[in-house]
Design goal:
Layout (H helix, E strand, L loop, with lengths): L5 H10 L3 H6 E7 L3 E8 L2 E8 L1 H24 L4 H15 L1 H6 L3 H14 L3 H18 L5 H13 L4 E3 L3 E6 L3 E5 L4 E2 H7 L1 H23 L5 E2 L7 E4 L2 E4 L5 E2 L3 H15 L4 H11 L5 H11 L8 H10 L11 H25 L7 H5 L7
Family: Belongs to the protein kinase superfamily. ADCK protein kinase family.
Protein name: ABC1 atypical kinase-like domain-containing protein
Length: about 375
């Protein structure tokens, strides 16, 4: 999104009494629909400051009411039309995501999430070592994988032993609902890295980003939190450090649903039958005909070499599954679609370069965490 003028941001910070921040703030380095981020120099430190604006929040609230109104109109008209039903289902899915989206405007919530995530980082190295050992075994078991791809995956697993994850820290005294000052995240955005050094970006994403996000989702999403907005712009990479940004997009799952998700991942990785997948999906919060549900779930986890995760979401709309999806798991489904879509993109690049299908199933990559421990 176009960034707000710097003078407008300075005026807002002055209203908060952050006069020192006003003197050191620079032009926006990133701007989105909810917030924008500026670089900042304060007391000879390089920092970042994230700001949101009340009129953006009001615009989102208005949009959600418009979607709700449009859905009611379509329902009242009782149109026996496939396109009208699909649009109504899409409006319903948007409504289910309202609470999660509006919470992103509360930067105090994001600061708390960043603190909670930082507290978890000490537990990650041991679990990651276990994941690495499991992946090396899985790679060696794949008999039809090209030797050059096997070598690349093995090398990335070995190199990643010295990598670590970092989360920005909120600066004490500079946190409000509309402004958040935090430590600077170094490195380069994975979004840029995909264009400049695609092989390195793929290595970092597959062998580090995906397992960390899976560990949070399957093991920590009930006792702590999970990050649910894993687009490439939210990760920065440099000198063996993966910085994870935008902790406003997090969820906390009910324990029963987290356990159902763990079982579903394990079953998908093992190639379970549709009825089993659908039964677990129902416990997780997605109900419908077994074959339709299983097809959508497999698509979301990129468990097929030939179907896009985005196609899975479109099929869920067409099959009316989104209207029978629990509200609290909609952010999780969106997260799965983003991760699966990026894996599909990387899978396609491997296919184009090596003329071979290499499995990059999210379920297989997350399977070592399916015990939920």
């Amino acid at each position: 999104m176009p960034s707000r003028p710097l003078i407008e941001v300075k005026h807002m910070l002055e209203g908060l009494g952050w006069s020192e921040a006003v003197l050191g703030i620079e032009d926006a380095i990133n701007a989105g629909t909810i917030a924008q981020v500026h670089a900042l120099s304060l007391h000879e430190l390089r920092l970042a400051i994230k700001v949101t604006f009340p009129d953006n929040l009001q615009r989102f609230q208005t949009d959600f009411r418009l979607f709700e109104h449009a859905k009611a109109i379509l329902k009242a008209l009782k149109l026996n039309d496939e396109k009208a039903n699909i649009v109504s289902s899409m409006f319903d899915a948007v409504g289910k995501n309202e609470k999660s989206v509006l919470r992103e405007f509360d930067l105090m919530h994001e600061a708390r999430a960043m603190s909670m995530a930082s507290d978890l980082l000490g537990l990650w190295p041991r679990r990651y070592q276990q994941w690495q050992a499991s992946m090396i075994h899985t790679i060696n078991e794949l008999t039809d994988m090209p030797n050059e791809i096997r070598a690349l995956l093995t090398m990335s697993t070995e190199q990643s032993r010295t990598w670590h994850v970092a989360v920005p820290e909120a600066v004490e005294g500079y946190v409000t609902a509309s402004a958040l000052m935090m430590t600077w995240a170094g490195g380069e955005s994975l979004q840029q890295l995909v264009s400049s050094r695609p092989q390195e970006a793929a290595m970092v994403f597959v062998s580090f980003v995906v397992p960390f996000m899976g560990w949070l989702m399957l093991c920590k999403s009930s006792s702590a939190l999970a990050h649910v907005d894993p687009h490439l712009g939210n990760f920065r990479w440099g000198d063996g450090t993966l910085w994870i940004l935008d902790w406003g997009s997090t969820i906390c799952l009910e324990e029963e649903k987290r356990q159902a998700l763990c079982l579903m991942v394990g079953c998908l990785a093992a190639g379970a039958e549709d009825d089993i997948v659908a039964t677990l999906a129902a416990r997780f919060g997605i109900k419908g005909h077994s074959q339709e549900v299983a097809r959508v779930i497999r698509g979301l986890f990129n468990a097929s070499c030939h179907r896009e995760p985005s196609d899975a979401l479109q099929e869920a709309v067409a099959d009316d599954l989104l209207q029978h999806m629990d509200d609290d798991i909609v952010p999780v489904v969106r997260c799965l679609a983003i991760l699966g879509g990026i894996l599909k993109m990387m899978q396609q690049r491997i296919r184009d370069e090596h003329h071979r299908d290499v499995p990059l199933s999210l379920a297989v990559l997350w399977a070592p965490f399916s015990d939920g421990a």
